[in-house]
Every structure is written in C-alpha cells, then in structure tokens.
Amino acid sequence: MAQPDKEIIRIVRDKGHFVLCTHYNPDGDALGSLLALADILENMGKKALCFLEAPVPAMYRFLPGSGRAQIDIDKVREFIRAAAGDIALIVLDCGDSKRVGKYGAELLDCHPSLVIDHHHGNPGFCDCNWIAHDSAATGEMIFDLAQAMGVKLSPQAAECLYVAISTDTGSFHYAATSSHTFNVAAELVRSGADPAALANKLYNNYSLGRLRLLREVLDTLEMFEKERIAVIRVSRSMRDRTFTTMEDIEHFINFPRAIQSVRVAVFLKEIEPGHISVSLRAKGRCDVSAIAAHFAGGGHKNASGCTMWLASMDEVRDALLPHLIAGVRSKKV
Ligand SMILES: [Mn+2]
C-alpha cells in the first residue's frame, strides 16, 4: 500500500473547495481517478470541480459522474474566485506539467497545488507531490488515500476506481500489478463495482467501423530483429475510410504485443500528416521509457510514448528502429 503524503491528507482535510484535473487525452486511469476523487471529496462535505480540456471520450461516458466534467475554463475561474482562498488544485495521473494541457500554466497558478501520480520521471511540479512509483494506477493511490482518511467509498466511486485500475494494468496483466492491486480490486468489488459488467462496457463495445479499422491496422504489421519488434500503424485516411476516430484505436497495440516472440510493440499513429504519435509497449526487461525520453516523450518502463514531427510514418519507424534494436539486444530478452 502506498502511504499518502501527510501534507496531502492535511490539505484535503483542511480545504473546502478542490479543482481536479488530469493529463490531456485522458485514459481510464485519469478519468476514473478524477471522478472517484470528486465523489470522495463531496462525501466529505466538500465542493469539487473536475476540469478537462475536451469532453470525456465516448468510450468512457459510462463512468458514473462523467457528465460532471467541466470543459469551460471560465467555470473554473468562477469556482476559484468564489472559493476565496479556501481551495486547492489536485493534478491526477500526470507525469509532467506540460501534460496538464493548454490551460496548465493557469491551473497550476492555483495554490496549494497537489500532484497524485505514479509515473516514473515525474519531477514533482506542484507544491506538494505524492508520487508512488510502485502503485499500479493512480486509481490505486486514490483508494489508499480514501482508506487513510477513513472515508467509505460509494458504489459510483468504486466503479470509477475499478475502471482506473483495470485499464492501467491491462486487465491486471502488467508488471506493476501487485498483491495490493488485487486487494484493492476486491475491496472495490465489495463496495459495488461489478467486474463482468465493467469489462463488457470497456471491451465488448466495438462499432463495425472499429473492427474494419482493426483489420486495416493489422494489415500494416511489420516485424524486425528476429520477430522481437512488431510495428503497426494507423493513418488518417484509414480512419476516414472506416468512419472512426483516434478513440477507436484504443487497445489495438495489444495485438502485436500478444505475439509470443515480441518484446516491443510499436504503434505509429498519424494524427495529421507530419504529426505522428508513437506508442511503445514492452514485455520483459526492455525499458521503452528511455527510448520515448530520447524523443522527448515519457511514460512507464513497459508503456510509454512520444510525438514525432516527421513527414511520413516510414521515417518515424526508421528513426526509432536503431534504438529499439539496441534496447532489445542489450537486455537479452
Ligand atoms: Mn495511470
């Protein structure tokens, strides 16, 4: 169990208003942690405002409370003004200040600011930083925080935290999954989270277009270095043809990663021509966060990413390959 920072507990107990935010392009852990913490704070009699710079992605709109996420920065400004100093900012699941997004500088101007996160390489960019590298998800830390404060979870908060933890651990597959993760999951089920119902909502939700997109993406598979490196890609034209969006590619990287011989799976995603986002997933000891960092990205040892501004996905692949090959070779995995 991650022991919450004492200062975090003191501020959470003392203050009456909280602005909660997370990283842009939020995933299940970001959204689940955000909504659960808001629910926990309200059950403590406090006021919480969840801010996102874009609406909740369609696939996560089933999360209890997803409708409360505020995308109007003016509402945040009003909330901060009305709190007249009785306020704190909490940044969740966010490994660096740049990932807070386009209103990051303004949000981080709200003090005291707290960060609750589990990313390696988080420099601690708030007034008070609780960074637990061993936690499988930020959602696990929110559970630990509620426990430490003696707050009982509502069924809604339990569902949000279950989704946070199950998505960030790849359904309890990734290396960060610990016995504590399972203890927390069991407690969440006792508090009202239904694993089968939530798994259905998370994974059995494909549109026909999404399946057609998956077929096209799998068709791009390339293998390197004795089938230890797998590369797939998605272009804007593929999404246009199948009437899908970037949200529809979630989890696709698990298919190349599932090949027995593969140590590193790479997903090249053309956001716009010349703007390529890269996801890296490793099995075993290969540390892909170092490779992502080399290209000004970041993340976890087994799951990280970066953005490249190169004309074509071939160029991005060719820029990455020497690093990937060196990584796979040096770790002898
Ligand atoms: Mn996370």
For this entry, give a set of tags.
single chain, 333 residues, alpha/beta, inorganic pyrophosphatase (n-terminal core), Diaminopimelate Epimerase, Chain A, domain 1, 2 domains, six-stranded mixed sheet, five-stranded parallel sheet, 13 helices, 11 strands, 18% strand, binds manganese (II) ion
Could you please describe the fold and organization of this structure?
There is one protein chain. The chain is an alpha/beta fold and 333 residues long. The chain folds into 2 domains: 6-203, inorganic pyrophosphatase (n-terminal core) (Alpha-Beta Complex), CATH 3.90.1640; 208-330, Diaminopimelate Epimerase, Chain A, domain 1 (Roll), CATH 3.10.310. Helix content is 40%, strand content 18%. It is built from 13 helices and 11 strands. It has helices at 6-14, 28-43, 73-83, 104-107, 138-149, 155-168, 179-190, 195-203, 208-218, 236-242, 254-257, 288-294, 313-330, and strands at 17-22, 47-50, 87-92, 113-117, 128-131, 222-224, 229-234, 264-272, 275-282, 298-299, 303-308. The strands form 2 sheets. Strands 6-7-8-9-11-10 form a 6-stranded mixed sheet, sandwiched between helices. A 5-stranded parallel sheet has the order 2-1-3-4-5, sandwiched between helices. It is globular, with a radius of gyration of 20 Å. The model has no long low-confidence stretch (mean pLDDT 95). Bound molecules: manganese (II) ion.
